[in-house]
Structures are given as C-alpha cells and as structure tokens.
Design goal:
The complex is a heterotrimer of chains A (about 350), B (about 425) and C (about 325). Chain A is mainly alpha-helical. Chain A has helices at about 15, 25-45, 45-70, 80-95, 105-120, 130-150, 180-205, 205-215, 220-225, 230-255, 265-280, 285-305, 315-335, 340-355; strands at about 165, 170, 175, 260. A two-stranded antiparallel ribbon of chain A has the order 1-4. A two-stranded antiparallel sheet of chain A has the order 2-3. Chain B folds into two domains: about 1-140 and about 280-380 and about 410-420, 3-Layer(aba) Sandwich (Rossmann fold), CATH 3.40.50.2300; about 145-275, Response regulator (Rossmann fold), CATH 3.40.50. The chains are: A mainly alpha (about 350), B alpha/beta (about 425), C mainly alpha (about 325).
Chain lengths: ~350, ~425, ~325
C-alpha cells in the first residue's frame, strides 16, 4: 500500500540502478531528514539531547566507520575505540596548539590523523586474517590506550591525565565546552554525520565499494581478477579510521566534554561492534538502527520504571539492564543474524508487494 | 526475599512521596554498587542512605522538609555518570558524582546548570579554592591534605625524617591516582626524599606482581598507596607475599577498607591508612540509627558492615550535606531550599565540637568549617591501623601543612580556569 | 640510550640472579594461568569454531558460585561439587538456548553471541552474588597458604605455596585433559569434530553432546583458574579482564593447538614480566604488560600467520 511501486516505470538502466528505485524510499528518507533537522531539535529536552539524540548520532557514525572496514571490506577490527581516541586527542592538540582554528574544521581534520594510524595498524591485515587479525587489532587498542596514558604531551601535561574540552567559538556561537548549548552541538554533529553518511553511501555504491566487497568475499579470488589487495585493504583501513576518528572527536568535543584514556578502552570497541553487527554488517542504514537499539534501549530501560511510577533499586535496575542487553543481543542474533537492516529489507519487500504476497 | 521486600518498600515510599507533594529535598547520589569498585562503594552508599532514612524517620526530614535521597547507578562508568547527572539535575539541589572521572565532566556543567557538586574526600584538591570553583565542594579534606598528613605521620611534624629516604607511590593509573602527584613532587624536592611513582593500570589491579617486583628491587623505605576497589586487595596480597613490612605501608582513605584487609587478615597487621573519619562504636548517633533504620529493616547494610570505617564515612558524608542544608534553611528562612541557597549553605558549614556533640557524632570526624574561599574545610584526620581484624585509630589528630598546599591550590585552580575560559568566578572579599 | 636498551638490563639480571629467578617464577605462575584460560578457548574453538569470549566471565562465575555456596554454609568440597554441577547446567543452557539456534552461522555472529553471554552473566552474577570483593576459600579447600623462602646465590627467592599448588594442579589438569582427549572415546570424538565436523557427524558423533561436554570442560577449567587466581587477589568481577590476556596467547600458540596454548601461555607470562621489569619500568614508564603480549603476538604472526603451532591455513579459490 505505502510501498506500491506500480506506475513507477524505469526507462533506462541508469534509472533502474538509481539510489531510490522506489519513490517512496526517497520520501521516507526526506521524512527522516525533516525529523532529524527540524522536528527533534525543536521538541527535544536537554535530557533527550544529551542521552539519546547526540550519542545515537555519534555512535552511528563510529559504527559506520567500523562497518566500512568489517562489513564492506571484511577485515574484523576490535580496535575501534582506540582510533576514536586518536581522533579525540588529535583534535584536542589542534585546538590547544592553534586556538584560532574553528573546532568544526579541527574535528574534520582530526580524522586524518586516525586514518594515518589506522593504515599503520592495518598493514598486518595483508598477511593475517579472521580472528587472528581481530586479535591483532586489539594490539592497537591496548597499545594506543597505554600511549594516551603515558605520553603527557598529548594531554598538555595536565595533572589529572585527562583532557578537558575548552570553550570554543565558531561564527560567534559557542560550539564546544560547557558554554555550548546542546542544540548547537546537535546541529554540528548532525551536519557532520549527514555529510559523512552521504559520502559513504556513494563510496560503497561505486567502484571502491565493489572492490571492497570482492576483497571481503574472497581476497585471493579478488587478487586474481586484478584487484590490488594492498590498496583495497589499506584504503578500507584509511577510510574507516578517518570516520571513526571524526566520531571520536565528536564524541569528546560535542558530547562528553572531557575524557580520560581508559574511556577509549575495549568495552567501547565492543559496544560499537555490537551496533554494527546488530544493525547489520554491510549496511549503512543498519548502523543507525543498531545505535538506536544499543544506545537508546538502556536509557529507556533506565527511565521506564520512573515513568511507570515504580521506584526500583537503581543497582538492581542496572544489573537487570546488563542482563537484558546481553539477552537481547543473543535474541537478535538468533532471530536475524544479518541484523536489523535485513529485517527492514524484508519488511520493505513485503510492503512493496502487499497485499498480494507470492 | 530481600529484593521483593525492598521493592515493596520502595513502591510504598513512592506512593507516600507522591501524596506528600513537591515539598521535598531531592538529593541524588550517583552511586556505584556495581563494577570493579563496588566493594568500596556499597558500604559508603549504605551509610549515606541510612543517615537520611534516620533523619526522615526521626525528625521528618531536615527543617521539616522530607529528604528524598535516591541513587542513580553508574557502576563507576563515566558515561553512565553523565547520563545520571542529566537525568537527575532537573529537580536536584545537589549532585554527588563520586568518581573523579565523572566529577571532571560534571564540574564545568554545574557552572551552567547552577547546581552544587559535593565530592566529599575526592575530586580535585584545587576545588578547595571557592573563588574559582564556586559550585564545587570537597570537604572535609582533599587528597593533597591526605598526602600531607601521611608525610607528616611518616616523617614527623616537619617531615625532616624523610630526608634521603625513598618513597614509592603506588597509584591507580587514573585521574584519581594521579591527583596527589603535584604535591608529592613538590615535597620531594623541598624535603629531599626520592619519589618513585608506580602506576597500576586498571587492567592490572588484580595482578600487581610486576609493580611489587619493582618495589622489591628498589627497596623503598615507605610505600604510599592511592588505590581503590580491587586494587587494594591486589596490592595488599602482593605486599604480604613479598614480605614488605606492613608498618611502612600507608594508604589514602579509600585504601582503608576492612573488606580489602580481610583478604590478608593477620598478615596485614600494622598497615595504616589516613582517614578523615574514625570508627566510633559507642557514638550516640548509633542509638537513633538502630531505632529508626535498623529495627524497622529500612537498610541494606548488615551488622558487620556497620562497624566498618566506610559505612561510617557514609554517615559522615550525609551529615555534612544535611548540615549544609540546615545552614541554608536558617539563612533563607525556608524549608524547601533551591540549589543556589544550598550552595550558600555548603559554604557556611560550622561543624564545631559542640555541634558534633549535638549530632551524636563526636570523634567520627574532626570539627571543621567552610567559607566562601575555602570549600574544603581542611578538617585534618587520623591514622587508622589494621590490627588484624579491624581498623583502630592509631594517631593523634593530624593536620596538613596549610601554608604549602594553599598556594598550590590557587595555582592549579587558576590553571584550570584559564584552560576552560570563560570560567565564572566569585569574589570572596 | 643504546646502553640502556641493550646492556643495562642484562647487567641487572646478572648482578641480581635471585631477583631474576623471582621474576621468572612470577612470570611462570601468571603464564600457567593464562595458559589455562587459553586452553578453555582452544577446546571450544576446536570442536565448534566458536571463539568463546565468555571464558573470562565463566572464571568469575565459577569462583563466585564456589565462594557463595560456601558462605551459605555448604562445606568446601561439597561446594566444589555443586559448583561443577552449576557449570554443567550452564553448559547445557548455553548449548540449548544460544548455540543450537546459531549452528552454521558465520564465526563473527557466534563470537558476538558469546559476548552477549558475557553481559548476561555479568548482570546475573551481580544480582545473585553482589559486586563486592570476596575472599577465596583457600584454606578450607586445603590449599597451603604459607611460603617457602629459598636463598639462591645468597639472595632471596619467595615461593608462595598456593602458587606452587596452582602450578601443580594446572599441570595435572593439562595432563588429565590430554589423556582424556587422546585415550577416551569422548575425547577422540571431540578431536574428530575439530578435524572434520562433516565426517565426524556422518560417523554418528553427536554434535549436541560434544558441545555440552566441551563447554562443561571449559567450565571445569574456569573453576580451577578461578580458584588459583582468586587465591591470589580475591574474587570479584574485575577478574574478568584476565580473559583478554588469553587472546595473545591464542594468537601466539595458534587457535587449534592445545600444546600451543600451554607453551604460548608460559612464553607470554615469562616474557611480559621480563620486559616490564627490565625494559618497561626503567624506560617506558611501566604498565607495558597491558600491550606487550599483543605486540609480541602480532610480530610473530607477521612471520607465521597461523601462530607458532596453529594449523597451516591453506586457501583455495
């Protein structure tokens, strides 16, 4: 009904391969964009900004970065959080060394640094595969976090060893630091996320994306048909780390306001991997669905008892929360191992042919 | 059974609270009863909660207004902590962030949200500077105070006994553990002892054999420990193993937890920890706690826990907050005070010996007072010593060297304000 | 600089041989425990190609159950038996609820599922046992707690009796396991499944039974590890992080090799301790143990992508 494709005739191959073969998809996307750009910011409370909107966007972006590497290029990585850390520390050093620099520019540039580090730690992928590679990326994870702790220059020799985001202006408005309003920060995050998502959609649809997918499905075979594996794998590491690094800079500058090294430890990496997998590997939409579930669910579970008028023991609620998240992960893996994105694909297909199923 | 009973009680409390209307003092506590630090968190949280339960039952709250002291669980996780802060700040008149990491993040926000932040015995030492940190309070003593007291206990009044000695500083590699380093480094240069910082990573807390091998190799004269949670047990078992003399091993107040010492038992005899509170078994306040909290079964603590330093520290913390509220209520003549008014109250705590006597808590914390410029109070403290089964008071009242710490506080506070410009300050003169 | 890296550490070692022996001993003890955890991983990986991240939390869970049961007044050895029963129940539950529906899924999905199990067990364990640090019932289990002091080269070498016990028990466990895998029908079935699952299934080996069995063995290993490690530093959820230490051991030793897990564990235990004491602490500010094992394994992998003892990876297009 909503998705009836009847009457939408394709007259060229180009039209058939367009991003939105069914017009309703474009309308749905437009609707979501209006929600994100207009409706949410006007209606959201401070609590919603800080615990739902901003973090969901940032986590989606980080998961998107990981998904490029793992979902498209097939290189499993457990070091995402460390690369986020590289982005965050690079951004911090840039704005403190060059205070005139616009924080938004600094955030976009900080990804370059993490891309560089990502390529270095991506080199073993040319020889190592599968779980061995996954554990190898853990080397990056632990080594970089250790470096964040030990290299005092990174945090400007701060006594506490943590970085604190300064108040910074861009076009006369506070963009980062405690003086910045949530609304401004939300728009900065949203703009960056929209931009990078647009880039990724087009990147994965084009030649680069196809090369990555060939590498993922079987790298030897890809090599035989003339794909340069080194370029393909390291390129994936670079793009992925760039996005992850930008997400890390946003994470600290637009949301947390301060960071200590162990923030970028393994649990964060796993959290992002959850988002990517629950959302669906090899899908862009999936990252958003996964982030909504993994980030949003605990918040809602935490608020739910209060809304229902129950007062629970907060420690008990927290434990239950951990249990439920664990159980849900298993549940979703069993129900739909290809993630929420696949679930949506199935629903959409059903809707397109509704009410006449095969 | 325990949980169902508690749930039922909580539900009852919620219904009553709803009928009582908005006349309540909301005091959220960003607690951590889960995670690797839960062992140290739980008894303190219990003590905090029990004190307010007692006030509610005995006096009907503070100044006639019921206290709603509730917890938001963070698991010592900074992200959860910030979430809790955002969730609770709406109607809260104070925030208690607990971890140094959460404090770090919440501190700049409190300036904008205008909520006082109460970090008793933790957070930054520089918070003592009330002119810069208007909204932050860390009474009764800061980490630098603690470090100073420890050095005095080890080296005598002028710390002269430390000259030429070697002191290992075993600390958690985390903002909390690094906090006393500026002060210790300064003293090492002034007094002439060798300071050997030994960091313990968060992942190495339970397996500190490398750190203790280093201690064995370096043979320091003293080991000062800035540890928390599972790190304390790890360090103590290793110390016993390497046969490090316990009377040369001293911890900060968060390393003086009975549960941690129980792991080593008799072998830990002689270990000391500085503390701003001391266990007093026969303090009059116990009678009220017994009558209003324990007998009606409104507590999560157990008999053994209540004898411990940490539970009693929880009581002291809540007492300080209650005193701040009382001061504000008297000043502004209203029961239902605002966060701004509580800020004034916390700046004007007069905890004299007489007042402690009235509260039935003599000897549990040294008398102190706060002011506009001094948000810590600098109560000083006592050395507690493990006698093989429990902690006992093992020194006279120790007072830090104020004249050394004050300039450092001003310096670091200004540094902080400069790095976070524009940073609002107040003028106290 | 070069002197500090290449000469000074060795001079230190020679100057204080008793201290060097102590360092080696400490490394050996940690190494044994890493090897035990890695062994749990390898067993499960061989028989089901599942990379079981939950091994770490199983260690905590087993130790907590043991201590919790004893705190309820159950005698120590009966607690051990009951804990084994609980671990068996856990193995059955995991097979039923998690693994059976996920048969045939890609490796990464199964890996994620074990992280789901980890989270579930953390929450569940905290509700039942609480988060505070508990004392391992070392003495009640008859583990000696004293220490032997030796004086080699006129120095000092302290050997904790419980560490010696841990090493001995671990060695016995490993030998027992090898005998089980090589000499019994069940054990051979496990190995057959690891070598070729299709062939094993076609000769009538039951996948379900084997999975339950393997997870139960992993549970036994978890309990032994939990007792040994808990005796050193108490039992709490912070123990869970030792699971990470088993990962480089697996890389180094190879995911399928039991011998690799043991040798890799010992190697990493000893080398990371030596590096930390003689290079990490004087030159790098300490705490290098968090990453040394990973970097070492990474370097080895660059030369041998399947680890020291892993099966050669042969890829066909």
């Amino acid at each position: 009904m909503f998705y009836r494709a009847a009457g939408q005739f394709k007259t060229s191959y180009r039209a058939d391969q367009a991003l939105f073969p069914v017009r309703q998809d474009a309308m749905l996307l437009g609707f979501i964009l209006i929600l994100a750009w207009v409706v949410f910011p006007l209606t959201a409370s401070e609590f919603a900004f800080q615990t739902l909107l901003i973090p969901i966007l940032i986590y989606s972006l980080a998961a998107l970065g990981l998904n490029i590497l793992t979902g498209y290029a097939g290189q499993l990585s457990l070091g995402t959080a460390a690369f986020m850390g590289v982005g965050a520390y690079a951004c911090y050093k840039m704005v403190t060394l060059m205070p005139w620099m616009s924080p938004v520019v600094a955030i976009l540039l900080s990804g370059v640094f993490s891309a560089g580090i990502g390529v270095v730690f991506g080199i073993p992928s040319l020889r190592i595969k599968g779980f061995y590679l996954a554990i190898a990326t853990l080397a990056a994870q632990f080594f970089l976090v250790w470096l964040f702790e030990k290299w005092a220059w990174l945090y400007n020799y701060n006594a506490s060893g943590a970085i604190q985001v300064p108040n910074l202006q861009s076009f006369g408005v506070y963009v980062s630091g405690p003086q910045a309003t949530s609304m401004v920060q939300y728009y900065v995050v949203l703009a960056v996320v929209t931009l990078l998502t647009w880039v990724c959609i087009n990147l994965t649809r084009g030649t680069t994306g196809r090369i990555w997918k060939a590498t993922r499905d079987m790298d030897f075979a890809a090599e035989l048909i003339g794909i340069n594996l080194m370029k393909s794998k390291l390129g994936a590491f670079a793009v992925s780390s760039y996005i992850v690094g930008v997400a890390g800079a946003l994470f600290v500058f637009m949301w947390r306001g301060a960071a200590e090294p162990n923030l970028f430890d393994v649990p964060l990496s796993f959290r992002i991997l959850f988002i990517a997998i629950i959302g669906g590997l090899g899908s862009i939409l999936g990252n958003y669905l996964g982030a909504i579930l993994i980030v949003g669910l605990p918040v809602i579970l935490g608020v739910l008892p209060e809304v229902l008028g129950m007062q629970t023991d907060s420690a008990l609620a927290e434990h239950l929360n951990t249990m439920i998240v664990g159980a849900l992960i298993i549940f979703f893996l069993i129900v739909e191992p290809h993630g929420l994105a696949q679930l949506w694909r199935l629903i959409r297909e059903k809707l397109v042919i509704w009410p006449f199923p095969h | 059974m325990n949980y169902t009973a508690r749930l039922a009680a909580a539900a009852m409390a919620a219904t009553f609270a709803a009928s009582a209307g908005a006349q309540e003092l909301n005091l959220p506590n960003l607690s951590y009863r889960t995670g690797p630090f839960a062992s140290t968190g739980t008894p303190v949280m219990n003590g905090q909660a029990d004190y307010f339960t007692m006030l509610n039952a005995r006096d009907g709250g503070i100044g006639g207004v019921k206290v709603n002291a509730y917890e938001c669980e963070t698991g010592y996780n900074t992200e959860k902590g910030v979430e809790c802060y955002e969730k609770t700040k709406g109607d809260a008149i104070v925030t208690q962030p607990w971890s140094t990491g959460i404090t770090l993040q919440v501190l700049p926000k409190t300036n904008v949200d205008k909520i006082p932040i109460l970090a008793p015995g933790y957070g930054f030492s520089a918070m003592a500077d009330g002119e810069v940190f208007q909204w932050a309070f860390n009474m009764p003593a800061s980490y630098w105070d603690g470090a100073s007291m420890i050095l005095k206990a080890l080296g005598g009044e002028d710390m002269g006994g430390l000259k030429g000695k070697k002191i290992a500083f075993l600390h958690l590699d985390h903002p909390f553990g690094k906090e006393p380093l500026p002060y210790l480094e300064k003293k090492a240069a002034d007094v002439g002892f060798e300071l050997l910082p030994i960091p313990v990573g968060l992942k190495e807390m339970q397996n500190q054999s490398a750190q203790w091998l280093q201690i064995r190799r370096e043979r320091p004269d003293f080991v000062i420990m800035w540890g928390w949670g599972a790190m304390n047990t790890g360090a103590l078992t290793e110390a016993v193993k390497t046969k490090y003399p316990m009377d040369q091993f001293v911890g900060i107040w968060w390393s003086g937890h009975s549960d941690d010492l129980q792991v080593v038992g008799q072998d830990g005899k002689g270990y000391r920890a500085i503390s701003f509170n001391a266990p007093v078994e026969d303090a009059p306040v116990w009678a009220d706690i017994q009558k209003y909290v324990i007998e009606p079964g409104k507590t999560e603590s157990d008999e053994e826990q209540r004898g411990e330093v940490f539970y009693q520290r929880g009581l002291v913390m809540s007492m300080m907050l209650a005193e701040g509220i009382r001061a504000a209520q008297e000043e502004y003549g209203t029961g239902n005070i605002s966060p701004e008014q509580l800020r004034w109250g916390l700046e004007n705590i007069e905890l004299t010996a007489e007042r402690l006597d009235e509260l039935g808590m003599t000897g549990m914390v040294p008398p102190f007072s706060t002011s506009c410029g001094d948000h810590t109070g600098h109560s000083g403290g006592w050395m507690l010593q493990w006698d093989g089964a429990k902690f006992v008071k093992a020194s006279d009242h120790l007072q830090e060297n104020r004249d050394e710490i004050a300039p450092l506080e001003v310096e670091k506070a200004e540094e902080y304000a400069a790095a976070n410009a524009p940073w609002p300050t107040q003028d106290c003169n | 600089m070069l002197h500090d890296i290449f000469i000074a550490p060795f001079a230190d070692m020679i100057a204080a041989p008793d201290f060097l022996m102590q360092v080696l001993w400490e490394g050996l003890v940690s190494g044994i425990l890493y090897a035990l955890i890695a062994l749990g991983f390898v067993l499960i990986y061989r028989s089901s190609r599942i990379f079981n991240f939950a091994q770490g939390i199983m260690v905590v869970f087993a130790a907590l159950t043991l201590v919790g049961l004893h705190a309820m007044g159950v005698p120590a050895w009966i607690s051990v038996v009951l804990t084994l029963a609980v671990m068996f129940g856990l193995a059955v539950a995991i097979e039923r609820v998690v693994l059976r529906p996920l048969v045939g899924q890609p490796d990464i999905i199964l890996f994620m599922a074990t992280i789901g199990i980890t989270l579930f067990l953390i929450g569940f364990g905290e509700i039942i046992f609480g988060g505070e640090n508990k004392v391992m019932i070392t003495e009640e289990l008859g583990i000696p707690t004293g220490s032997w002091t030796l004086e080699p080269f006129g120095g000092l070498l302290i050997l904790e009796q419980k560490d010696v016990t841990a090493v001995a028990v671990a060695a016995m466990l490993v030998v027992g396991l090898l005998v089980f895998l090589n000499r019994t029908q069940m054990g051979r079935a496990i190995r057959a499944l690891g070598d070729d699952s299709q062939a094993a299934l076609s000769v009538g080996i039951s996948l379900r039974t084997i999975w339950v069995l393997v997870w139960f063995i992993a549970g036994i290993i978890a309990l032994v590890t939990g007792i040994a490690w808990g005796a050193r530093a108490g039992v709490s959820f912070a123990l869970e992080v030792i699971a990470y230490k088993a990962l480089p051991v697996l890389m180094l030793g190879g995911l399928e090799s039991i011998a690799g897990a043991i040798i890799g564990g010992l190697m990493i235990g000893v080398l990371e301790k030596l590096f930390e004491i003689y290079w990490g602490q004087p030159l790098l500010g300490g705490n290098t143990e968090t990453w040394f094992a990973f970097v070492l394994a990474l370097i080895v992998l660059l030369f041998r992508p399947q680890g020291l003892f892993g099966e050669r990876i042969i890829e066909r297009v």
